[in-house]
Amino acid sequence: MTDVYDAVVIAGGAARRLGGTDKPALTVGGRTLLDRVLDACADAARTVVVGPRRPTARPVDWTRETPPGGGPLAALDAGLRRTGSGTVLVLSADLPFLTPATVRALLDAVRAVHGTHGTAPGTGGTAAPDGAVVVDGGRAQPLLGAYRAESLRRELALLAAEHGRPANLPLRLLTDELVLRRIAPAGPEEARDCDTWEELASARSRIREHGRVLNEWMTAAKTELGVDLDVDTAALLDLARDAAHGVARPAAPLTTFLVGYAAARAGGSPEDVAEAARKAAELARRWAGEAAESAGAAGAEGTGKTGGSGQPRGGEGTDAG
After folding, report:
1. Tell me: the pLDDT tens digits for 2-38?
2. Over pLDDT 70: what percentage of the chain?
3. How many helices (H) and strands (E) are present in the chain, helices listed first?
């Protein structure tokens, strides 16, 4: 099997529990829900977003279901028509914590299926499945799954013959006819969506928790600045600390800026960043060393003048007898 797949992102819907707000355009960590989902499937050969056009951080193909607002089954049908790969990833546009790891697990499950004859794991001993979906809280999530495009087209054609257009039909009419492998997400929150204002507020709070806030911020900043670079955050934080302690507090942000500028001029690779950071860190340590030497010399000089006890040397100023 090749690694080629297409992605269909369902970004329509009325968002009734959000008062009709344009849900995919809402932000978590300064990035829209839609952009966060698009980031998780950035290596798709083609990404089709079904819904009203919106600004996105990367190029996508746009299409609409017929009629607009006709439901997820109609949206899937419209998106599938714009794809050409044998494997199709299907995602809803409101998954703020979805990562490439879960996408990869879904694709690997489907690719394993393609090479399977007879039965496959996770299907209860039935025939080789038509795809794989994430299970969250015991419930399968059909809009967080990867499918054989041939299987989707087959079932959509059967539904069209029976019902006509797929508009306003429940998605389960399709998924109930598919044999699907069920997998766990790579992380406990990856299937978490944002259907209410409370869930949105919770997601926004979650990304600011200690242990993830810096990674979230760095990802958002790189996206905003158009920087596609793996950054050694720990090394840059160590550099900022050395500059702040060894030189002056304002030197920390200025030094990291200069490191970035120097790395860009050198070529902009991760190795260029590491080398610029190393040079700046060594400079900061030399500054700190000089300060320590000067402080030590001043202390020794002061001690020498007072004989080490705070009293004048040689009994000066004392009564000699």
Report:
1. 579 999 999 987 677 888 889 999 999 999 999 999 9
2. 87
3. 10, 9
Does one domain contain both 117 and 189? yes
Report the distance separating Cα 269 and Cα 40, nearest Å: 23
Residue with tokens 């766990």: 184
pTM for this predicted structure: 0.77
Q: What are phi and psi of 140, to 5 degrees?
A: -70, 140
196 in the same domain as 55: yes
Say if CB 11 and CB 51 are below 8 A apart: yes
Same domain, 149 and 267: no
pLDDT digits (tens, 9 = 90+) for 201-227: 999 999 988 888 888 888 888 888 888
For residue 300, count other CB atoms closer than 10 A to its CB: 10
What domain count does the chain have? 2
**CA proximity to 259, closest of 229, 292, 289:** 229
Beta-sheet strands, E only, within the chain: 6-10, 27-28, 31-32, 46-50, 61-63, 87-92, 131-136, 139-148, 180-183
Partnered with residue 48 across adjacent β-strands are 8, 61
Same domain as 187, residue 56:
yes
Task: Look at the block and give the residue holding tokens 């990367």.
Answer: 58
- Structural domain boundaries enclosing 155: 6-206
- Identify the band that residue 321 occupies on the pLDDT scale cut at 50, 70 and 90: very low
